[in-house]
Amino acid sequence: INRDVLRSREKETGGRTLVHxxxxxxxxxxxxxxxALWGILDTHRLTALQYADTALHFAAMIAxxxxxxxxxxSYLENxxxxxxxxxxxxxxxxxxxxxxxxxxxxYPVLFRFDENGGYHAGILRYVTxxxxxxxxxxxxxxxxxxxxxxxxxDKVRIRHGRxxxxxxxxxxxxxxxxxxxxxxxxxxxxxxxxxxIIILTSYSWDDIAEEARKAxxxxxxxxxxxxxxVMDQFRDAFMRKNAALEKKTADLKGRRVLLAEDVPVNAxxxxxxxxxxxxxxxxxxxxxxxxxxxxxxxxxxxxxxxMDMRxxxxxxxxxxxxxxxxxxxxxKTIPIIALTANAFDEDVQRSMQxxxxxxxxxxxxxxxxxxxxxxxxxxxxxxx
Length: 384
Description:
By secondary structure, the protein is an alpha/beta fold. It contains 14 helices and ten strands. It has helices at 3-7, 11-43, 47-75, 81-104, 123-149, 152-161, 180-191, 209-215, 227-244, 264-276, 287-296, 316-324, 345-354, 366-383; strands at 111-113, 119-121, 169-172, 197-201, 219-222, 256-260, 280-284, 304-308, 336-340, 358-361. The strands form three sheets. It has a five-stranded parallel beta sheet with strand order 7-6-8-9-10, sandwiched between helices. Strands 3-4-5 form a three-stranded parallel beta sheet, sandwiched between helices. It has a two-stranded antiparallel ribbon with strand order 1-2. Helix 8 links the parallel strand 4 and strand 5 (219-222). The protein is extended and about 90 Å long. It starts with a helix and ends with a helix.
């Protein structure tokens, strides 16, 4: 057991995944403690305490399964509906087991002790074991499927949509389906030039060096990897990238934003946040009105669009597609930011595919909103 994890009480330092990991370790620890106590209590024939220990043992066993499932889903950073369904299934399994344990006090369906203190398993003990094995198999299958299907470019796109870009990308040159150069091109099309990209290869890169530079590769690192040379290459890549790039951000004062939000309370909150930076905003109560307002104003009138996803008449994705399809110079370049409670990875992917530039979750964090606006408006002006 990792004592550093068990003793740590600062959830923020390790993030959500570490919180799930810590809870899983406590579940496993409780399982082993109750298992060890069972033998001691059985030796001394303390049947009443042994009964209570057995009940706790079953609860700890199922809790460990549930917590392991949550940890696996969180560790994979794959917040799809399937992962969420798997976590809920584990929770329901745990709740059902607690009910069975409660019923067992009155009717021994899970286990019982005879007059001599002998332990006897009930029919639901074997059902519990079967469901436990099934949960392990489902979680293992889910983990394998996510690992197989996870593509590097998709992971980068999702993180970029959340405005949580990776600090460094390491890409192998020779890969099946898509090589490192094409992967780099697709990533650069999403994140731009800010994140350093290093190609790992055991081949000579002289013949592809020029093509790689054009694709967006910053440097190459030969395989096999050695700690000293790798750290030097990482350091050089960061230094060159920082020297070549001066991230341009925009001053938000006086900027004009189109806000598409159908809930008046939410709209008032966002308008109040924008006013804190002395920004102006026009509100549209649904996607159709937002498209009409954008179309009826001259190009360059709006510096950005804040788009709710769920709205009557026309949702945010449809409205974004309609704006991107307009034949005017700012239709393809204006930053469009999703403001939504839908935070699954697949929701972020749909937003990016529809033409949105960022995907921010509700309730809206003011600093995240301002930082995203500064970055995207600045980038649009730099490349406009």
